[in-house]
Each structure stands twice: as C-alpha cells, then as structure tokens.
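Please decode residue identities from the backbone states below.
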C-alpha cells in the first residue's frame, strides 16, 4: 500500500488533479482525451499518469496504440474518501473561478 504522503503528493500537481477530475466520472479515458482536455503533450501527460499510477490512484489498460486510464476501483476506502474530497474541492474552485469571470464580463458590458 502506498503511503499517505505519496498519495497526496501525486494529487498536488494541477495537471494530475485535472486528470482526476476528468476520471471522476468512473469511465476509462484514453491518454489522448486527457491530453486534449488538459492541453498537455503526450510525454507530459504520460509522465503525470505514471505518477498517479505509481501512487495507486489510477489503473491503466493498453488499447492498441493508446493507454486508457480509470480511477483505481480497489482504492482503500479512506483514500477514496480523500480523493473524492480533493476532486470536489477542485470542482468548487473551478466553479468559483468561472463565476468570477462571468461576473467580470457582466460588469464590463
């Protein structure tokens, strides 16, 4: 089992957190999808996903030339709860940013 500090460290990077927000839907996602949605190169995205895999947060499956990732369904319940809280906090932060941007646009009009 991976230590808590390794687990949290893997989630502390913005691109990795973005990937986990996308994987929160429970489906598999191709690294090509993650690259596009997170504006990352293949090598950068692969490096980030390798860190999440090493921390036990995601699992992968090779699909022809691409690798598909999903949340680790066997994550310990306490780590799953932490992951859900971190993803929810990221979602709330993004919503607050979007709300602030929307408010600025209305003020400018």
């Amino acid at each position: 089992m991976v230590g808590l500090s390794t687990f949290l460290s893997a989630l502390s990077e913005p691109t990795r957190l973005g990937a986990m927000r996308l994987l929160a839907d429970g489906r598999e996602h191709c690294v090509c999808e993650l690259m596009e949605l997170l504006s990352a190169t293949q090598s950068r995205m692969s490096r980030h996903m390798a860190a999440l895999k090493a921390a036990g947060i995601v699992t992968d499956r090779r699909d022809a030339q691409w690798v598909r990732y999903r949340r680790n369904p066997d994550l310990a319940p306490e780590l799953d709860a932490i992951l859900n809280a971190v993803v929810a906090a990221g979602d709330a932060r993004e919503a607050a940013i979007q709300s602030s941007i929307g408010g600025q646009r209305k003020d400018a009009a």
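Observation: The first helix runs from residue 4 to 11.
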